Model the fold of this input.
Amino acid sequence: MSSRVEEIVRRRVLTEVEKYPVFRRAAVALSGGKDSGSLLHVFTESYPDKEVIPIHLNLGIGGFSEASERFARMQAERAGLHLVVFNLERELGFTILDARRIYPKVCSVCGCFKRYLLNRIAFELDADIVLTAHHLEDFLVRMFKSVLNAGFEELARFKTYLPKNGNLVAKGRPFCRVPERMIAEYALLKGIPFLSEKCPIGRKVNIERFRKTIEILARRQSQKLLYFSSLTKLAEMLQNCGAITIQELKPCSSCGFLASGETCSFCTRVRKIKAFLERGQASSSPNTR
Ligand SMILES: [Zn+2]
Done:
């Protein structure tokens, strides 16, 4: 017999996924944590007819990355699926810890690498969609920050589903209306193995402040959903009013994947990190660019 939480999580995921155009093969980003582990579980249980490819990115953050990969393997095995692992050091010759020597604010590099690599791997595996486990609070934090910091372009670009665009695979976030607490409960109910340790190099002080503010403002879960709907409507209005120009994308001069600049930010950063490491200037003054 399924619990109330299980029913809500499943229903909200189904409601989101049913909005997407029909797809056959889904790549699921699997970090080894509770959110993506739960997403893989609920998705494979709800859609046994879909092809699912779990993808794990090992970014080389010491023991944390090793443990993350171990848990991602357990989660994939439990679902009877083969895990695709991309090991940054093996494939590109450096880790995120190396990247931090040239980019002290490495979280943005990490985010850029994850977005780029997930898309590239999914594209190469002929996946129709990439599913990520961003939850309700992830979206609320991002949208609140955009509004309060006048990041209207960022807010206007906000979408819970992004359709395929050339070599950019469609992106779906089926947990966008599911609060984190419910996902944690789902993971425990289903006995999903997951790593609870947080990234040791993440400096997310600002995000935590926004997160706490949202918790104070929304004393009930329904209020969070109301804020989410209001901010989504605002994002749509911004898109439709013509005040925001959406940048045109063109193929990156180096890798060919669509990007807003001449060379995409992934290729630019990889080139810079490799050059820095090759010069052996590990102890020279950092360039934050
Ligand atoms: Zn590129």
Remarks:
- The mean pLDDT is 92.
- The CA atoms of residues 2 and 189 lie 9 Å apart.
- The pocket of zinc ion is lined by residues 252, 254-255, 257, 263-264, 266-267 (CB under 6 Å).
